[in-house]
């Protein structure tokens, strides 16, 4: 199948997500197997509609491959920074943002995560003082053997910035969000010039600003700004730390 | 469970607020119908969200009933009932029952014990209908008890336990939307746990109760860390939510996820600072 997914869903190529969703619902009802007496044609149509929807909504803004092209091979990362949420498979990148490019539309979470790790790991070569002890930790992380990585880190007596960086990576692998943020932040504080450290922290905080963008798109003036009387102080603090202040000046 | 997952009424129009109230009343009706007055007392916002989410995703036939009730004896209220009302009512009972049981075991609170006893019959009914979900909730609270008993339990461990439990409750149908429903439940579970820990921290320190944030509260960026973590958790939830093809009542659901969930946080964060300022002004 190589038809245009917009055409399959009967919407224009600049349709909003909500228009795509409404159209999908209409078609899903129309071709639902239960309503078509198990007709093979309806089933095929439903499959096509589902694939088009998956392509347009689940992988929005990450489309590099043509629709219906199957599983792509090779590394989909062009070299741009992927600021996706490293914990989830359904990161919705911002198309217009320069930071959200190079996402493989077909990768499931594990694939994405592995590649993300590999990409990040290769960038470690840029470290000014690369501590060889962390090579073993890096290997364990690449193998997704977080227990071993954790053990190796636990055995080290000193805690340089890299220690926190790798602890953050291990936390991501283990699904520990608060630890990941905490360690990434410490790494950046200790070595503010290290690009890989900043990238990791940005990646973890990036989904928050994506969330705020989404929220404002739907008419919410920032996550913490619902009640202006109560929240001026809180919202300012929040906005300054999460969205680099100036961009989200509408908060209060 | 905790009442964090609710609307921000300031950002909703009258019609939308009315629809939310109809779901809320519907859940209350379902609780009354299935479990009597004691069931009604467990009514919560958190399960109202699940009810609305399921109703929006599957658009089942709905029955609107109108009438007076015990909490609103004068003005009749409209309520929506549909095929998901009973499930959400039952899960509400199961969560409330286990919460009481947990509080009784933790604090030996006689009031909670009495409440638990009153709910036993209702819970047995729920357990008979949903043995797997009830087993999951019981297992979750046991795991939490064990984790709370250990010396250096990290908040992540506990929020991830809550995530697994709520993720399981959010999965009602095993269809193509199951992964998203699970992620939404998990994300809200993490968010709720951490939010609750943040809100209770002061009180828990004062009364020497367990709180996994105690070990962190004097670190230099504590409040930023909490905010970043909560934001990451709810952002993941919203991401999965936006994949679902929701049309009906989607504005209300978005109001909850992008705005309503922060309402309590605002209050916790904003109130003390305002009071502090007033104190300063006085002195």
Question: Helicity level of chain B, as a percent range?
Answer: over 70%
Q: What is the helix/strand order of chain A?
A: HHHHHHHHHH
The gross shape of chain A turns out to be: elongated
Bin the strand percentage of chain A: under 5%
Major sheet summary line of chain A = none
Portion of residues within helices of chain A: 40-55%
| Low-pLDDT sequence parts of chain B | 273-277
Order of helices and strands of chain B: HHEEHHHHHHHH
Averaged pLDDT of chain A = 70
Structure classification of chain B: mainly alpha
Outline of chain B:
globular
Q: Indicate the multimeric state.
A: heterodimer
Taking the sheet with the most strands of chain B, its summary is:
2 strands, antiparallel
Q: How large is the share of residues in beta strands of chain B?
A: under 5%
Average pLDDT level of chain B: 90
**What is the radius of gyration of chain B computed over CA atoms, rounded to a whole number of angstroms?**
19 Å
Please give a handful of descriptors for the protein shown.
heterodimer; A: 252 residues; mainly alpha; 55% helix; disordered C terminus; B: 283 residues; 2 strands; 70% helix
